[in-house]
Amino acid sequence: MADEFSDSPNTETEVIPLAEPKRQRAPRRSKEAIAAALAAKKSKTARKPRDTSAGDTLKAANKVPADRTSAKSAQQKAAKVTLAMDEFADLIALEAENQKLRRSLAEKLRAENADLRKKLGLA
Predict the structure, then answer these.
(1) Domain range annotation of the chain
(2) Which is it for the CA torsion 41, 45, 51, 52, positive or negative?
(3) Spatial distance between the Cα atoms of 31 and 37, rounded to a whole number of angstroms
(4) Maximum pairwise Cα distance, the chain
(5) Contacts of 114 (CB under 8 A, 6+ apart)
(6) What is the pTM of this model?
(7) Of the candidates 39, 64, 85, 91, which lies 20 to 30 Å from 24 by C-alpha distance?
(8) What's the Cα-to-Cα distance from 72 to each of 65, 81, 100, 114, rounded to whole Å?
(9) Backbone conformation region of residue 96, classed left if phi is above 0, alpha if psi is from -120 to 50, else beta
C-alpha cells in the first residue's frame, strides 16, 4: 500500500507543446501615408481618355439636352418627396389609431379585472 502512494515524482515525462507566439500587427500608418496610398490607387484606376475624333457626330446626335435631364431629375426628386410625405402622414395616422386602441384595451382590461375581483370577493 505504501508503494501505491509514493511521494517521488512521476518517472514518466509528458511532452507539452509550446504555444505559438502571437503575431504582432504592423504599426499604424500615418494619415499622410494613407492619403498617399489612396492617391496612388486612384491614379492607377483612372481611365485613359479615348480618341473621340470619329464618334463625335454620333455622340452629339444621341445626347439629351441638359435642361431635359434636369427636369426629369427634378420630377423624380419631387415624386420621391411626395411619396415620403405620404408615408409619413400614413405613419402619423397609424400612430394615432394605435393610441386609441391601447386606451380602449386598457379600459376593457381594467373592467375585466374589477369583475374578477368581485367574483372572488377580493374587492
Answers:
(1) 68-123
(2) negative
(3) 10
(4) 108
(5) 123
(6) 0.34
(7) 39
(8) 11, 14, 42, 63
(9) alpha
